[in-house]
């Protein structure tokens, strides 16, 4: 078990270094602080509310399912952050580049990535052609969290799993109702 933990720590450190230091460029420095907010509460809730207001009745329910997946997955995120506290990478690894107003709470799992995947997978399950819009959105939000040194790759991976899992479970549950 210790060797697995040591391997994961090395993997996390080497991949965060690659994304945050080796891929650092002016374009990403400009783009990633903007993209990352697309996984935040304001953007995700605004999208869902806009969907309910603007879309035809037969597909409004997707937003309700997205909201249920979003809220339920964030309860899991909150629980995990409380019981598995992990210091954010930029606070632990000195040479990482961070950006204005970095977060100081715990990093595991990535809530922004969880939110992005909970909504993306919900919509993809209803309309598979939307994968070309929603999957790049969710992956880019997860990438931005690492680029900004706010999350380790395993934080993002767990957020991906949580968001996707809660989306699948929610869509399935609504089909049963």
From TrEMBL:
Entry-linked Pfam families: PAP2 (PF01569)
Residue stretches spanning the membrane: 37-54, 61-80, 115-135, 156-174
Gene Ontology molecular-function annotations: hydrolase activity
Sorted UniProt keywords: Cell membrane, Hydrolase, Membrane, Transmembrane, Transmembrane helix
Xref: SUPFAM superfamilies: Acid phosphatase/Vanadium-dependent haloperoxidase
InterPro entries: PAP2/HPO (IPR000326), PAP2/HPO_sf (IPR036938)
Keyword set includes Cell inner membrane: no
An example Gene Ontology CC term for this record: plasma membrane
Subcellular compartments: Cell membrane
Taxonomy, superkingdom: Bacteria
Domain Phosphatidic acid phosphatase type 2/haloperoxidase: 64-171
Protein topology in the membrane: Multi-pass membrane protein
Cell membrane as UniProt keyword: yes
PANTHER family found in the cross-reference section: DECAPRENYLPHOSPHORYL-5-PHOSPHORIBOSE PHOSPHATASE RV3807C-RELATED, SPHINGOSINE-1-PHOSPHATE PHOSPHOHYDROLASE
Protein's recorded name: Undecaprenyl-diphosphatase
